[in-house]
Each structure stands twice: as C-alpha cells, then as structure tokens.
C-alpha cells in the first residue's frame, strides 16, 4: 500500500517525536515533511536533571544523569540508592513531576506554534518519552490523536513500520519512496530504450 495514496497520510499529520535530548514536531502531508520544529536540550534529559537536582537538595550531592537513567530504566520501582538512602524516582516529586512539566511545555508549544491545532488534521506520537507525557496532549486534542489502534485508522497505519511513525522515520520513508520511484522509472526507461533498439529481440 502506498502511504501517499492513503487517506490518513493525505491529511496534515502532526508527528510528535519526543526523545532523550529533543522534542521534535513535524507536519507531514502526503508523506512529505512540510514544516518542522525542534526544542533542543529538552526530553529525557529534563527528567534526569530534575531528579538529580532534587536528590542533591536532599543529600547534598548530585548523582549523574546516567545513574538516574539507569534507575528509571532497570531498577524496581525506579529505586536508586544514594548517600546511604533509597529513593524511588517514581514518587510524585521525582520523575512524575518532570513528566507533568514536560507535558505542559509540549502542549503549550503545540498551541502556540501550530495555532491551537488549526494547522494539522491528525496527530501521532512516538519516541521513548511520549507514553509518559501524552495524556495532556491527547486530552487537549481528542479528535486529532491517533494511537495506531484506533479505528478507522488502524488499517491505515498497519503498513507503516513503527520506526517510520516518528518524524525522522517518516522523512526516510518519503525519501525511500522517491528513490524507489526513480529507480523504477529509470529501469522502465532503459527497457524502453532497449526495445526501441531491438535489444533482446530474437533473430
């Protein structure tokens, strides 16, 4: 199925790609990026910094961002032992507070940069941070957000690999489709030229 012929991708789609160091926003139409915005030094790194600074306030010493990342990723209940005491980073004052702040930041950015939703028709989200901050955005745009399982767009997303649903992935998908079309057109042209010259015809 060609995504560009798909009614879903024909709509203006805002892609929110939230990762470690950036919050990326891109508006796509017919599979092509028509407008993109990036908030740098914002994302998981914001969560790590918030938790580390709060632990510094409590203990007098600051753990590294890598230690916070490891605790949130691998420890049970986000637990970290620091300066002789155990802390759970999933307690409201730690990571959840940072998630809430990021959600507000992301929502305000969408409201301001994309005119309250008037510049896009549908919205999808991706990136490791997205599941932790998407609630406020989804509640603000209930008629726009598509989670990949929602009907009637489930069938429209099933042909798109998940890694292509983020902003970088969609750009790569668009470029791939362009290159494939060019290759096929070039092959057809060569075959047509060969036929005109009688190449391949039996004697």
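Q: What amino acid sequence fits the structure above?
A:
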């Amino acid at each position: 199925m060609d995504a560009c012929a798909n009614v879903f991708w024909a709509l203006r789609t805002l892609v929110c790609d939230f990762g470690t160091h950036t919050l990326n926003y891109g508006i796509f139409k017919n599979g092509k990026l028509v407008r993109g915005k990036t908030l740098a030094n914002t994302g998981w790194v914001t969560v790590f910094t918030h938790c580390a600074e709060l632990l510094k306030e409590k203990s007098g010493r600051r753990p590294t961002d890598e230690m916070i990342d490891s605790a949130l990723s691998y420890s049970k209940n986000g637990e970290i032992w620091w300066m002789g005491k155990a802390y759970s980073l999933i307690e409201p004052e730690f990571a959840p507070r940072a998630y809430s702040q990021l959600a507000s930041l992301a929502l305000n950015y969408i409201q301001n940069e994309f005119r309250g939703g008037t510049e896009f028709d549908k919205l999808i989200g991706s990136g490791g941070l997205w599941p932790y901050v998407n609630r406020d955005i989804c509640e603000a745009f209930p008629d726009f957000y598509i989670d990949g399982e929602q009907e009637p767009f489930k069938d429209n997303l099933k042909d798109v690999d998940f890694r292509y649903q983020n902003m970088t992935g969609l750009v790569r998908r668009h470029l791939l489709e362009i290159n494939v079309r060019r290759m096929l057109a070039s092959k057809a042209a060569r075959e047509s030229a060969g036929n005109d010259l009688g190449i391949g015809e039996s004697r």
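Q: And what stands out in the fold?
A: The first strand starts at residue 13 and ends at 18.
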